[in-house]
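Newbie here. two chains, one complex. Structure please?
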Amino acid sequence: MTSLFLLAAIFAPWIAPHDLGDTVGGVWEPSSSEFWLGTDNLGRDLLSRMIYGARTTIFIALMATALSFTLGSVLGLGAAVIGGWLDQVLSRFVDLLMSIPTLIFALVVLSVLPANLITLILVMGILDATRVFRLARAVAVDINVMEYVEAARLRGEGKIWIVFREILPNALTPLIAELGLRFIFQVLFLSALSFLGLGVEPPDADWGGMVKENKDGIIFGIPAALIPAAAIAILAISVNLIADWVLNRTTDLKGGRSGQ
Amino acid sequence: MSYLLILVAKRLAISALLLLAVSALIFAGTTILPGDVAQSILGQSATPEALANLRRDMGLNESALSRYISWLGGIVQGDLGKALTNGTDIADAISKRLYNTVFLASVSAIIAVPIAIFLGLVAVRYKNRWPDKLISGSTLAFISLPEFFTGYLLIYFVAVKLGWFPSVATVYESMSFTERLTAVALPAATLTLVVLAHMMRMTRAAILNVMQSAYIETAELKGLSPLRIIARHAFPNAIAPIVNVVMLNLAYLVVGVVVVEVIFVYPGMGQYLVDHVSKRDVPVVQACGLIFAAFYIGLNMIADIVSIIANPRIRHPR
């Protein structure tokens, strides 16, 4: 399922039967041989928009995940190894950011920032980096007191060498296990923002935005909004299952997620 | 006993401090970040004179610190300022909506909490047998569902196809309690489904944790009946983690309510916030953001205080 979505995302311009913004039929036509999933609120082909939507959704979510991981793990590992006031300042700041619900803080910040793709990715990435920071720092603090790190330190290795050659390779497994979960979170977060009308700007649309466009049809019994919503759900569940499978394969992590 | 009081007082003080810091962060987030508020409101085509006038009216020419202090001072006195878009008093607009939101959240909580704890207990009782696998598997799927999928699915099938409940949750002041309850039935059901999965999984983990303790094994080996073990040995120790789980999820509920209110066009805080974010009405957004954050911090604080009180081990200084 995940690979199907990925293929749709990568090859969107070639496989979509119609163009993104083309009005090709009546408003909310039911599914037919020409329009497999029917048409949307402006008479655009829903299947084509779904395929382009896959591209937008997955691209933004991936970018935001990449940003949150780079930022979170670099700062987290740095805080753990360097320690001292840097660790204190960063940790307290992350505590503070996490004491505000993510969605609420995103709404507050987006009310003043200009609405564009880069802002969106930055806000999503930075807010989520707090969680990666906590995980990376916790893992690195554990590893930092291991004998082999101590040995490297006594050998006279520099801090950078310790971070990249001793700690990072050992911290990578738990971080990668977290990657799938953070990606799902970003997909859901982006969908929620777009659904609230604060994410991707029309005429481009991600799946959350498409739910918003077609939501008025629901009351008349037109299920057009359910299709992108279901796609988000299926993507989230399938990535979740993959993450679970990866987690079970790396046996040393078993049980590490109890209570999640 | 007095040591307990000190601990609780300490926790209260930390929350107050946190709230203050959060207010500063929200204010800073809407002030210091790049992006000119006056420009956002008037749009790109605004004349320089109009911009200058609006900046003066909003007090944007004063320093950020003095604006923060006067904003905070207003909030302490219950004055949240006026909305930029229509000049209405924010505190008035919020008070009714806050009641609606709290009503919706409490109805969901009243339904979700007992079901989650019951399901959690069932899953523990039949651990690794089919009831546990069924419950755990379906909750794993439910966690990944976005709120609007559940919401619109309910609207489509229950409201439109079956016509049992209204699809749009309109409430007004003259409504009787039961009418209100029917109006919020679907949004409450959506919220319940959203938090139920999380709450149940965490309850299961919390009880399992207690059930694996050495003293439970001792009680079992003494030959006590399962009922007595659960009532006398497991339950008192499981209260704190369960209350913690419930509070954390209620805090989550506060956030989930935003999306659910938009789905059902419910006149609550979340709808109000989202409306004014797209209108770039900064004072409203600041006020709503602060209130949501206050609920979130408050619920987390209650969770901590309950676990302090319920746990005899941290009552005594080491």
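Moderator note: Chain B has 13 helices and no strands. The CA atoms of residues 216 and 233 of chain B lie 7 Å apart. Thread marked as resolved.
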